[in-house]
Please model this.
Amino acid sequence: MLRLERVTKRFGDVVAVDELNLDVDEGEVCVLIGPSGCGKTTTLKMVNRLIEPTSGRILLAGDDVTQGDPVRLRRRMGYVIQQVGLFPHLTVADNVATVPRLLGWDAARVRARVGELLELVGLEPARFAGRYPNQLSGGQRQRVGVARALGADPPVLLMDEPFGAVDPITRDRLQQEFLRLQGELRKTVVFVTHDIDEAVRVGDRIAILREGGVLQQHDTPAVVLAHPATPFVAEFLGADRGLRRLAVTFLDGAALDHPPTVPPDATLAAARTLMDGRGRALVVDAAGHAHGYLERADVAGDVADGPATSRMRPLPALVPVHATLADALATLLRHDAPWVAVVDGDRYVGVLTPDGLHAASRRSS
Model:
């Protein structure tokens, strides 16, 4: 665990961070966010002592890091910044190898680690190890920066607006890549951003600071969005925080409708009986796979009898059962559909309608 106890930083008469208490659990991503001048980057730099705190303690696994050698401390912490900061005269491989070499690793171990890390961040070693930073795109440089920060497998990763200097499409991909890496590595991460959407997407918990480095709220994205602790937090999150909450709220069984199901080998007459006047039925086989659906008109009494599949319509769209409400809403809108089928793997579990989505959102508040 990383713990900040009453950490304060003053620059002359100006208080940049004011008695900050903050716990970051092992394997957790804590996002620091707030307006300009609220002490986000100052807090981050106090953790690895690029800036020395005026008072307070910073504990890593119970040890007060403010009492030891700051150089040794920084080698235990990965550090990623917005402008990457790669050494322009070194190759990608040499940049990634920086900390392992400082720690005295032998050449074979360094080579193996560089190859492993480049693979991990999605850069093929044979293609990229020998390139120089000016031969890379912005997104590629940022990936190298992450690989370098992970060089000696540090327990803590500090990230200061790491994806802020790239275009929106690249930023989205880097966020996805970060979430994938974090799912594998489970590092303790302190992540600074000014973008609330990024904070909601990548953070396990969000710490919102106001001017002067005063902590306003520290909680999960879902709780912060649903229950702002102070008027400042509510104003900072904005009037559309309800929409943002959809991105951190997941589908639940209570949100789903369960129209009748019809086996693929049923006749239209049998399907009509199974539907019992309902407006819709899903065609689902014995293994739970949904093949399509039938509307009431498809099995009406004036329709010639035959196999149900002869009148079956394709499913409008599929949504995984563990999707967020934002993903589900996006799918509904993208397909201009009045409902979507929800699946667990390839097994059908129910139907989501706009009414069900709205009810799920209300339950989350």
Q: What stands out?
A: The radius of gyration is 26 Å. The domain at 2-246 is CATH 3.40.50.300 (Rossmann fold). The chain has 15 helices and 16 strands. The chain has a mean pLDDT of 91.
